[in-house]
Structure formats: structure tokens, C-alpha cells
Amino acid sequence: MRRIVERPRLLEVINESEARSVLLVAPAGYGKTTLARQWAAVQDDPVWWYTALPGSSDVAQLALGLASALDGTAPGLFEHVAALLKAHPNPARQTGLLAEGLARHLAGGDLHGAVGVIDDYHLIAEAPEA
User: How far apart are alpha carbons 107 and 89 in whole angstroms?
Assistant: First the structure.
């Protein structure tokens, strides 16, 4: 049986933070994802979750992954991003256009108060275009 260790002190630190972004940084196996899941489970506002994959540093894969994660709060976003990617054959060179198109569609969604989690962020952190 797998036992999850509750971390109320760490959850309190995250909840009391006024920062717009919080990074959980620790070596593999220290429970960052578990802590983030515990935090997400007690939020009153909607929480979207994206787990980065080894290929997520590719702009197209990242855009589609984020669109899929956010599609519940901004319906049709995935299809919108897929159409943008078809219209712009070199996404790495057109990140500004993709970001603008993504933001424009999100502006019409119901993101008020929504918060997001990007798990395994280190897989995209080193790619400037991502």
C-alpha cells in the first residue's frame, strides 16, 4: 500500500504566498508533484494541469499540450491552436503569433481565478522558444 505524506506546513507556505508564480524545486522523488496535487485538490478556483513530456520543448507540442490542459476552461482552444499550427508551418520562429492567438482565444474563456500547474517544468525551461 502506498502512503501519501501530507505536508500542511508546505501547503500553508504556498497558500500564503502572494506571488503570481510558485516553483517547487527539489531533486526527483522528493514529492513535488504530490505536493502540487494536494494543493490543487483544495483550491476553490479551477485548476488546470499540464505535465511536460520530453518533447515538450518543441513549440508545437507544448502549444497543443497547454491547449489541451486549458480546453476545459476555454472550450475549443485545442482546435484553435491546432489550426494556428497548420497556418504557421514553423512554430519555433513564430512563437509570438502563436502566443497572441492563444491569448486572444483565452480572453474569451472563463479563466477568472483559474490557476495552473506545469509539472516537470524543467523539461521546457531550457528551451527559450518554449
Answer: 24
Which residue type, as a one-letter code, is found at position 25?
V
Integer distance in angstroms from the first to the last C-alpha of the chain?
38
- Domain of 29 in residue numbering reads as 1-42
Q: What's the angle, vertex CA 55, arms to CA 51 and CA 57, rounded to 5?
A: 85
Considering the domain architecture, whether residues 80 and 38 belong to the same structural domain is answered as no
8 A C-beta contact, residue 45 and residue 115: yes
pLDDT tens per residue across span 65-118: 999 998 888 888 899 999 999 998 888 888 888 888 888 888 876 667 788 999
Q: Bridge-partner residues for 9, per DSSP?
A: none
What is the chain's length? 130
Report the share of the chain in percent with pLDDT over 70: 95
Q: Are 111 and 74 in contact (CB under 8 A)?
A: yes
Number of structural domains found in the chain: 2
Decide if 52 contacts 66 (C-beta within 8 A): no
**Is residue 52 helix, strand or coil?**
coil
pTM: 0.85
Same domain, 105 and 75: yes
